Fold this protein.
Amino acid sequence: MNTLVALCAVGAEKILGNEIKHLGYKLISNAPGRVSFFGDDAALYRTNLCLRTADRVYLQLGQYNATNFDDLYDGAYSINWQDFLKRDSKIVVDKVRTYKSKLNSEHSIQGMVHKAIYSKLGDIWHMSSLPETGEESDVRIYLDNDQVLILLDLSGLPLHKRGYRVDGGIAPMRETTAAVLLQEMMWRRKTPLHDPFCGSGTIAIEATLYAFNVAPGFGRRFALENLPIYNEKLAQEIRQKEAEQIRTDVEVRITGSDIDEKAVNRAKQNAEYACVMAGRALKSIGISKHIQRPDFIQSDFKDLSAPYETGLLLCNPPYGERLEDKESAKELYKDMNSLWNDFPNWDLGVITSNEDFQTCFNHKTGAVKKLRAGNLNTAFYIYRRS
């Protein structure tokens, strides 16, 4: 049994934990921005392929106490690195996170762990130097209260890079964040969904993948595939099983709009790539069907009206770098009252980093979820009206 660690937006740990449990794996613990769990060998590939809200998945290689650099070195050296890395791997200790630990110099910690890995591999393989001509293998270190956690990256590119985005435009929302918002709203495929500030279409596309049960990782590769622990036969079996789970027998009403014609065209192109990705997965198991594309139109949000009695408005309105200044953002939030009035029985979810949103929007809610994705602190405002 393996111990794995999945990273997510800070504040999304419960959502990610529920996803992991839904895949059948047992949770161990969580910390801000990460969830630890047990998984079999299939989990190494399956979690990368299937998790919608995880930013990365790591394999835990070591956990031990270290209050000095000798302890840090010895613990890292004791790991059987030769089982997890190839002889030509380019090894990078890419991130170090410390919290209330005696060792707190990130650069020094990186150097010591890197030295331990190279010493161990050199001793095992009887090599004075390693060629480093192959694929990059990334190692991450956490030190919490002097407890060292050594992790090996299984994802490669962050998992929000699904492989379908042709052009994100200005300040695009992460796909994993959109997936978190859908889960927070408890959205179901029978509920009409509209994004009135669709930008590159991320929310509508992620809703489509969810509605048709398309694993989000079908369009990309993972770092795991470059490691000696990768089981290609098992990975193909997992892909086949997940392709068999794609729904082609459901109808959904997923739409988006934007005042910017170029944004709408980007959204349509991204959606096409995402749905083609799903179609290829179906074709791999001999099914010649496609999934329904979300619809995108050019429109000012103030000109919209509810096409159905109930539904969900879910959006990431422009803010910060997406508008000229904060005053423009405040005016936009005031104008969003038109959505409140023109979609009277629709639930509403709004994510923004602007702390003035509720005041300007002039509608209060007690359901505010704090999320931190990357370096951006945001709040997700949830209005239940249906």
Summary: The chain has eleven helices and 14 strands. Residues 77 and 116 are 5 Å apart (CA to CA). The first helix runs from residue 13 to 22.
